[in-house]
Amino acid sequence: MNHLISHISLYSLMSIITMGIASGQDARPASTATGSAKSTEIITAVQRAIVDQTNEFRKSNQLEAVQRNEPLMQAAKKFAEFMARTDKYGHRANGMTPAQRAEKAGYDYCIVRENIAYRTNTGDVTAASLIEVFVQGWIDSPPHRENMLADYITQTGAAVATTDGVTYYAVQLFGRPQSAAFQLKLTNDSQKTETIRFEANDQRDEVELQPQMTVTMTRCLPTKVSLARSDESKTVRSDATFRVTNEGTIEPSETP
């Protein structure tokens, strides 16, 4: 019998928004099978396939490939090994968040997302069987698939670990470095106070902007900007400067 459990986590570092989908620490029953030697060959093949198949999946959805990142690889490796060694499972199994683990490994993050899973086997273990369970399992799970297809993610790191050759733990981190954050600047050039709405994923923030006032923020996620009283919005993905006009619209500013 095979057993697969997956979890998802998202951590974002932004000027206004901090968001997360995370479970607490979950203690999984200890493995009953013992004596299986760790297969470096299988683990290497599965780790490589997780990244390669993630990029194939992204390509099939018209998205850019994510690049392997060494700090993310190291963070994923240490966490997978921790879960395999302790039989503790969950995004905070070692008392740290995915973002904290990535940062400790040297990753200067803007966003960190994480997929984890484990599989317990009673029969022969092959790289192909683990790849099918981990990668396809994440693809078939909406929140895990969302991590794999996030269009603002640019880097990844994946790792697999086992201590007994029976139960395998998989970790895939997705990141966007702090260097890829962008600046959004908006000035109210109208004659009245306006409430400006900023939306990213499921987060919404509103800022009251008096005439001739300017708000500047650093963002990590693509952000929709709109007047609270209007349904029209601008989506910002890179450095941008806007102004509120007397006509009640948000337009690109001619001055930086």
TrEMBL record:
Compositionally skewed regions (Polar residues) per UniProt: 243-256
InterPro entries in the cross-refs: CAP_dom, CAP_sf
Region entry Disordered, spans: 230-256
Domain annotation SCP: ranges: 52-174
Annotated protein name in UniProt: Cysteine-rich secretory protein family protein
Organism for this UniProt entry: Roseimaritima multifibrata
